[in-house]
Amino acid sequence: MGEVVYARVPEPLKQALHGHAAERELTLTRAVVELLERGLQATADAQSVSELEAKLAAASSEREQTRARLREAEFGLQAAREREQLTARTYSALAERSRQQLASCPQCRKPVCGRDLFVRGRCPHCNKPLTSLLMPAPRANLDSNEYLALLGALGVLVGLALATANSAG
Ligand SMILES: [Zn+2]
After folding, report:
1. Which of 16, 61, 114, 165 has the maximal Cβ count within 10 Å?
2. pTM here?
3. Pairing of strands 111-113, 101-104
4. Which residues surround ligand 1, an ion (CB under 5 A)?
5. With b meaning 16 or more CB within 10 Å and e meaning fewer, what string describes 44-57?
6. Pick from 163, 142, 164, 161: which is nearest to 153 by CA?
C-alpha cells in the first residue's frame, strides 16, 4: 500500500489525467504515479545537465586562461632567447675586436691588442704597463673621471666577452 497525497488540481488537468490513464488502460493512481515520477526525473536531469554545462563552461574558461598564460610564457622565453643570442653575438664581436692590434708598445714598439690594453694592462712582449696609451692628452671637454670609469667598465666587458667566447668555443 502506498501513501496518500491530496492535491487540488484544475478541472482541465483532472480531465487530461483521466484521458491519459484511459488511453493506456492504467488506473488513475498508476497514471499519476508514473507522470509524477517522470516529472521529478526530468527536473532532476535538467538540473544535473545545467550543472554539467556550468562545470564545462568553467573548465573551458580555465583552459583558455591556461593557454593564454602558456602563450605569454612562450613569448617571454622567445624574447629571452633572442636577448641571449644578441648578447652572445655582441660578446663574440667584442672578443674578436679585442684580439685586433690596437697600438704599439711605447717601450718595445711591438703590437699590442685591445685585450692587452684593457684587460691585462701590460705589454705581452716586455710587460710594460700600457696605462700611458690609455691616457689622452688633457682636453677641456673631457671628464677624466668619467673616462677612467668608462675604461674600467670596458675592461670588465672585454674580460667577460673573452671568457664567454672561450667557454662557448
Ligand atoms: Zn712592449
Report:
1. 114
2. 0.54
3. antiparallel
4. 105, 107-108, 123, 125-126, 128
5. eeeeeeeeeeeeee
6. 161
